[in-house]
Amino acid sequence: MSATMVSKTPDSPEKSENGTAPVFSVRGLWKVFGPKADRIPGSAEAELSAEELRSRTGCTAAVRDVSFDVQPGEVFVVMGLSGSGKSTLVRCLTRLIEPTAGELSIDGEDVLGMDKNRLRNLRRHRAAMVFQHFGLLPHRSVLDNVAYGLEIQGVGKAERRAKAAEVVEKVGLTGLERRRPGQLSGGQQQRVGLARALAVDPEVLLFDEPFSALDPLIRRDMQEEVIRLHREEGRTMIFITHDLSEALRLGDRIALMRDGGIVQLGTPEEIVDSPADDYVRDFVRDVPREQVITVRKAMRPAEGDEATDGASVAPGVTVAEAIEVAARSGGPVRVVEGSQCIGVVDHQRLLAVVAGVEAGVVPA
Description:
Number of domains: 2
InterPro entries: AAA+_ATPase, ABC_osmolyte_uptake_ATP-bind, ABC_transporter-like_ATP-bd, ABC_transporter-like_CS, Gly-betaine_transp_ATP-bd, P-loop_NTPase
Protein name: Glycine betaine/L-proline ABC transporter ATP-binding protein
Structural class: alpha/beta
Keywords: ATP-binding, Nucleotide-binding, Transport
CATH superfamily of the largest domain: P-loop containing nucleotide triphosphate hydrolases
GO molecular function: ATP binding
Largest sheet: 6 strands, mixed
Shape: globular
Pfam family, one: ABC_tran
CATH architecture of the largest domain: 3-Layer(aba) Sandwich
Strand content: 15-25%
Distance between the termini: 34 Å
Number of strands: 13
């Protein structure tokens, strides 16, 4: 995927609505594996497809000219199929894998220019990873596994155990502190991995497909846990997944990758409602639109006394939630922001979103 196909990708660091700088800022990042890999970025071969690049040069561009910002407190999801480059990308952020070219900073500090000590500080204190396969120490108890990162930091035994006990309670593992990983279920083991990352109080949590090996019900529980923790702490999170429903559920914004590049970057609503190309369109084809599209997108201007009478919802409410309100009230539903009615959704508008057509237009 060439850089020209990237959608909604920033050219320079963007500040959030409150004026704060991004936590991670990535510009033109490449990771190429193969002979003379550093010659690929910026060359004519950089525009080749993945298959042509391998055939002509013997190189694989796992991450290809990627740019994005992650804002403070954001859940930024990177998703794509196996081999799309998402796991390589998240490892490049802390240089567990060394990027081939590009720019990368955290809080304005150049990550690629960090020496060993600063890089060690980044990995120990500022960004913590939650892996798919847990990575627990089998001979240690839950409490000591959770405290392991603090031990690496040099925190005293009493202090780190006290902190670990707090985090164990936070992730719902109270009563299991003395058990070993082999005595836990898959979901419980993943909670230990999450608690270990939280214990070091990182600025950013990096999740590399952490729930893909779990059963569907346990996965849903863990997704709820991430949502709850984010709601309570507001911690910045970067979440890697191949599961679209998981991405839509967790992400404030989603970067959809293919062949190492970002095909589209936007909110869940933007991606479902306005796919950038046929690849994205095929991805979101089976998504229940009413569970993602909000009433702000579906509303029309109020007419007559519609602005003052009837049930109301907030602009960020999904169409699915508004359908329930409309079914109970039996009439149009006001969309109210603050104390002002900014629009109305009626049965026709709501059903149009479900059907994927414009209101008033009958599909052929």
